Amino acid sequence: MPVLGPLSVTLEVPDIVPGVKFYSDAGLIATVEGTVARLRCAPQDRDSIVLIGGGTRKRLHHIALRASALEQIAVLVPQHGGTIIDAPDGCEAAGLWVRDPHGMVIQLADCRADDPQQPSEIFEINSPGRLVRKRRSAVLPQSAYAPAKPLRLGHILVFTPDVLASVAFMTNALGMGLADRAQDIIAFTCAKKDSDHHVVAFAKSPEVGFHHTSFQVVDPDEVGRGGRALVEKAGRGDWGFGRHTIGSNFFHYIQDPWGSWFEYYSDIDHIDDHDLWVPSNYGMEDSLASWGPPVPHDFVHNYEADSTAFATAA
Asked: How far apart are CA 222 and CA 23, in angstroms?
């Protein structure tokens, strides 16, 4: 099981300042060195998002995944249309650097797993015939809640010109598993053991690009509170509160300064053993949500494929 989980996303952007504010408002911790910003979740000691300033526009630089058996992957990558490359300028040479058949750069790092998460308080729901919460209110006054604090990067969604070809590369070369898909428009890949429903997902677009990162919070209430608070601070578009069909997670997406998205999520499906999981091919009516508000007109628009930047297009 070579790929074990997500590590980070690196973006080239014109100016890191709006990104540092946006992701700090989202609850990440920022460290800035010159024109590079590194953002991490409070419980972790590694980056989840890296912003490299000075670009002409926002562009996906690379994604990083935790993996084992790098020598095995190095043999398989060229057999399945990929290329082994040197580390890009300014990036650590550690691990294995790969370019997929569509040009997306992936760093694979054989690093230690994150510390196990501590159990959170159970999110109890009173339902017909099952009253588990008694003699107390489920909801405290608003002032009792701290701002949302992401616990970890859960998954990454990127654009690709050929969704099924990208899935084939991830499964055949990088040892991932197909979790589910919706025709050839969107697909979700996972690690083979003890994985969230998806680690890397793909949506169809004429070119490679970055769509969103998704960060776990404690429960659906924090998804809702955090999402509304970030919308008010960011002043951009949003989609949520809702629940996905594929993966089952509660979600709230907020648009970042360059037209891509940040997601808070909780309660995602877990695949403990991919050999015991049966992938589904959903209809397009289930590709985005089971329920939620109307989808923004540009939710699946790849601004990296445009000749104009998001600020102009918006």
From this structure: 16
Q: How far apart are CA 34 and CA 156, in angstroms?
A: 26
- What does DSSP say about strands 96-99 and 193-196: parallel, antiparallel, or unpaired? unpaired
User: Residue 163: which region, alpha, beta or left (left: phi > 0; alpha: psi -120 to 50)?
Assistant: alpha
Report which DSSP code applies to 119: P
| Cβ neighbours around 62 below 10 Å, total | 20
8 Å CB contact between 82 and 102 = no
Tokens 């990162």 correspond to 213
User: Does residue 241 have a cis bond before it (omega within 30 degrees)?
Assistant: yes
Helix (H, G, I), strand (E, B) or coil at 261: strand
C-beta of residue 278 within 8 angstroms of C-beta of residue 233: no
Would you state the pLDDT for residue 306?
80
The span from the CA of 170 to the CA of 192, in Å, is 12
The total of other beta-carbon atoms located within 10 Å of residue 34's CB is 8
The 10 Å Cβ neighbour count of residue 38 is 19
Structure confidence by residue, pLDDT tens digits, 194-244: 999 999 999 999 999 999 999 999 999 999 999 999 999 999 999 999 999
Digit-coded pLDDT (tens) for 87-113: 999 998 899 999 999 999 999 999 999
Q: Mutual orientation of helices 16-25 and 220-234 as an angle, nearest 10°?
A: 150
How far apart, in Å, are the Cα atoms of 216 and each of 75, 243, 249, 263? 34, 14, 10, 8
Nearest to residue 204, comparing CAs of 221, 187, 218, 219? 187
pLDDT the model gives residue 1? 59
pLDDT of amino acid 180: 98
Task: Give the pair of three-digit tokens for residue 291.
Answer: 């329920």
Residues β-bridged to residue 239: 253
Rounded-to-integer distance, Cα 105 and Cα 207, Å: 13
pLDDT value for 193: 97
